[in-house]
Design brief:
The protein contains seven helices and 16 strands. By secondary structure, the chain is an alpha/beta fold. β5 and β6 form a beta hairpin. The structure holds flavin-adenine dinucleotide (FAD) and FE2/S2 (inorganic) cluster (FES). It is an enzyme of class 1 (oxidoreductase).
């Protein structure tokens, strides 16, 4: 897998929902040639020498024609707040694409995507790599103000939306919507992204449907050298940064302990 350490130019960096930003960056065609959805960019925070660690942010979309990489992120801590201040024309030091990403076998035609909040972001990129599948998306947001990219999902997937407070779509969690649909139909595979607590619920509702999850584990180096990101997978400790972030849900031991 070609990974590239590049300096990329910021094309735009806009607020698209409550505390949610969409950044568009130039991308080296070479580095992204073998890109897989679910891989991430490891970004050095500019003008912040005290922040030694890069921040991992999933690739939200790759526009191969325009040679752009898009990322969507929440400004939650020092690093991502500084990232939100970056302006068009600024440059960023980026390692990408990182991690394994989602892989769809040829017989996985019917694909259901499920994500909550910022965990929705990497799922959109399935459409640019595997346009020939039949997609259904289950998207969960806290409230109306947090909703982003629904129209993008609607352009390639049958899309179901839930908000925790019921201000947009159906009230409740998107895992309830998924459970309802699973009582009527079954996909070939479910792909998910979000925190561990979300995967716990998912593990309870999916029955025997194959499912892969992208884990948002805390990271240090992001390149396999520090073991900050280790997680017990199938009884062995694995590095989420290089052996993940995507794993078979049934191998994530923490979900079944
Ligand atoms: C593979 C992967 C993909 C991700 N994709 C996205 C994305 O698309 N959009 C997005 O908004 N966020 C994403 N995250 C989470 C994002 O990396 C953290 O929100 C971010 O690093 C927080 O940095 P900070 O300086 O703002 O916060 P701080 O809390 O100041 O960060 C302190 C340290 O904790 C780590 N950290 C804090 N929160 C998280 C978290 N939830 N997950 C992992 N590390 C964390 C940081 O890397 C940093 O080392 C992803 C995380 C991983 C592992
Ligand atoms: S973050 Fe250092 S080994 Fe994974």
């Amino acid at each position: 897998m070609i990974k590239k350490h590049t300096t990329e130019r910021v094309l735009s960096n806009e607020l698209i929902a409550q505390n949610t930003y969409l950044m568009k960056l130039t991308c080296s065609e070479d580095a992204m040639r073998f890109y897989r959805p679910g891989q991430f960019a490891h970004i050095e925070i500019p003008h912040a020498r005290e922040l030694l660690l890069r921040r991992p942010i999933s690739i939200n979309y790759v526009d191969f024609e325009k040679k752009e990489v898009h990322i969507a992120y929440n400004a939650i801590g020092k690093g991502t707040k500084l990232l939100s201040l970056v302006r068009p024309g600024d440059t960023l030091d980026v390692l990408m694409p990182m991690g394994n990403g989602f892989m769809l076998k040829d017989d996985m035609k019917k694909v259901w995507l499920i994500g909550g909040g910022i965990g929705i972001a990497p799922l959109k990129s399935l459409s640019c790599k595997y346009p020939d599948r039949e997609y259904t998306a289950f998207l969960g947001y806290r409230s109306k103000e947090c909703v982003y990219q629904i129209q993008d999902f609607e352009s390639f997937a049958t899309t179901h939306v839930a908000t925790d407070d019921g201000t947009f779509g159906v009230a409740g969690f998107c895992t309830n919507l998924l459970a309802d649909e699973l009582s009527k139909d079954k996909p070939d595979v479910i792909l998910a992204c979000g925190p561990l607590v979300f995967f716990r619920t998912l593990a309870r509702v999916i029955g025997d449907v194959p499912a892969f999850v992208s884990m948002e584990q805390h990271m240090g180096c992001g390149t396999g050298g520090c073991a900050t990101c280790v997680c017990k997978i199938g009884g062995e400790y694995k590095k989420v940064c290089t052996q993940g972030p995507v794993f078979d849900i049934r191998e994530v031991d923490a979900l079944y302990e």
